[in-house]
């Protein structure tokens, strides 16, 4: 997975943290969680606020759909 794979990352984060509201996670913590995902293989320095926001929203959609 790369930083641009927001939907795939969002789903992986939902599977790993199904009970956590993604909107309560700070971007610095979100970045660390993405970097720790199995299958994530991108430059840590390539993250930025728009990419993290897209990931957070994809995770939020998964979370909302399963509440």
Features:
67 residues, mainly alpha, Arc Repressor Mutant, subunit A, 3 helices, 57% helix, 0% strand, globular
Summary of the model, kept short:
The chain has 67 residues and is mostly helical. Helix content is 57%, strand content 0%.
Structure characterization notes:
With 67 residues, this protein is mostly helical. It has a single domain, classed as IscX-like (Arc Repressor Mutant, subunit A, Orthogonal Bundle), CATH 1.10.10. Helix content is 57%, strand content 0%. The chain contains three helices and no strands. It has helices at 6-16, 27-36, 49-65. The termini are far apart.
List the helices and strands and how they pair.
Elements (H helix, E strand, L loop, with lengths): L5 H11 L10 H10 L12 H17 L2
């Amino acid at each position: 997975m790369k930083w641009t794979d927001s939907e795939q990352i969002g789903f992986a984060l939902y599977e790993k943290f199904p009970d956590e509201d993604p909107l309560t996670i700070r971007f610095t913590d979100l970045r660390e969680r993405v970097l720790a995902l199995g299958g994530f293989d991108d430059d840590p320095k390539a993250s930025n606020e728009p990419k993290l926001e897209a990931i957070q929203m994809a995770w939020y959609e998964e979370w909302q759909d399963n509440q």
